[in-house]
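Pasting as-is:
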Amino acid sequence: MATSKLNKEQYANLSAFAGVMLVYNSTNKDGELVQTAQHFWGKDFEPADNSDNEIFRVVKNLVATIWHTVAEEKKLREDADGIRSKFRATTPAEIIICDNRNNRIKKYDLTDSVWARIGLVPTKKDLEKSSRDFAKTIHAAAKAIRDAMNFAPNLAKVEAEPAEAPAKRGRKPATKPAEEVVVVDLEKAA
């Protein structure tokens, strides 16, 4: 397992890679969009195929690496407050997963996502759990993160659902009685 932080020039000049790339967007002082990245590579971060199981394995390894590093960082900072990991606490704009042949397996675009955070970095509450619970929490967090990355609200389905809901529950939809309209020709009535 290895990881490296890429500045905007390094990321812009990267043509292909294997592993997981967390891409972060920021704006420089001139108002230009700047993309930097955190690259994870090695057997733990390269899916063998594009199956859901392999994607989950890679996401779980990514989450475990970040969570264990942040937990260790917290312990070490008690003695030396200047210790910091390479990992950013912000949510990446994109998560790109490539296999060992540099083929893109999955790309999650999180800029237009409904989620403000997806939990790649553990919270204080997560870090306070016992080591046994911590391992279970990492597994549960990896599942939740994968589900969050795959989630996209289907507004067409949401709009259609209320109309179908009464029929599904066995109730008849409420109907208004038809109003009677009387047309009077004023010229003939006079």
